[in-house]
Amino acid sequence: MPKQAMENLTESMFYLLMALQQGDACGAEISARAAQISGGAVRLGPATLYTLLARFEKEGLLADAGTVGCKRYYRLTAAGKAAYEGERARLQRCLDDAARAEITAPARLTKGEDRDETAQRGDRIPSGALPVL
Fold first, then answer.
1. How confident is the model at residue 109 (pLDDT cuts 50, 70, 90)?
2. Does the global pTM surpass 0.85?
């Protein structure tokens, strides 16, 4: 079954919605907030940012919050807040699953014992050495 539009958000989408959780903002403010929140790891360039803003507005996740000079401001709608909360919950479930998987993983997988550690040093051919024929 194909995924629904906006079912899982990309990192850029998620941080854009996260930035708007702080209140209405223009594109430059959204980009700056995303960079600040992520410690500089997420940078929304103009092409990505304005493509996502148009898409989110079309999907009803954002609404026009007015214009001041040449700056257009955006506001999260109820659907945008729900999309953000849904993705946040999905990511938290992923982290919870990962934590449980680490706790329940067999010791041989977590300690590197799945490698063939029965071979003796002399059994290995040094790198770069050619066997004698």
1. low
2. no
